[in-house]
Amino acid sequence: MRELGQYLEKYRSLAPPEASIRKVLAQVLHDECGFDLKEKDLALQRGGVIISCHPTLRSEIMRTAPHVLTTLQHSHNIRLAFIR
């Protein structure tokens, strides 16, 4: 029984695949725009990202969106169609 517990321990911290994409996206947005977004504010839907934040922050994100999408594709091999 102890061996089973040790085996299952490694699966305790698994997250869905989109969690890693949200984490990378939050980091790239921090690098490009200079502010922190929580991963819960980023939702992946239909090949793009929906961001829930203050309108001022969203305006800054929209201004840098093409550069953010290019950085994600070239540096992290993550292809997203849009940021809204």
Entry keywords:
single chain, 84 residues, mainly alpha, two-stranded antiparallel sheet, 3 helices
Form type: elongated
Count of helices? Answer: 3
**How many strands in all?**
2
Structural class given helices, strands, pairing? mainly alpha
Determine the N-to-C terminus distance.
Answer: 49 Å
**Percent helix:** 55-70%
Multimeric organization: single chain
Order of helices and strands: HHEEH
Query: In which order are the strands of the major sheet placed?
Result: 1-2
Number of domains: 1
Nutshell version of this structure?
The protein is mainly alpha-helical and 84 residues long. The protein contains three helices and two strands. The chain has a two-stranded antiparallel ribbon with strand order 1-2.
Topology, element by element:
Elements: H1 2-9, H2 17-33, E1 42-45, E2 48-51, H3 55-76
Antiparallel strand pairs: 1-2
Helix pairs in contact: 2-3
3D structure, described in words:
With 84 residues, the protein is mainly alpha-helical. It has one domain. It is 56% helix and 10% strand. The protein is built from 3 helices and 2 strands, in the order ααββα. It has helices at residues 2-9, 17-33, 55-76; strands spanning 42-45, 48-51. The chain has a two-stranded antiparallel ribbon. A hairpin with a 2-residue loop joins strand 1 and strand 2. Helix 2 packs across helix 3 (55-76). It is elongated and about 55 Å long. The model has no long low-confidence stretch (mean pLDDT 88).
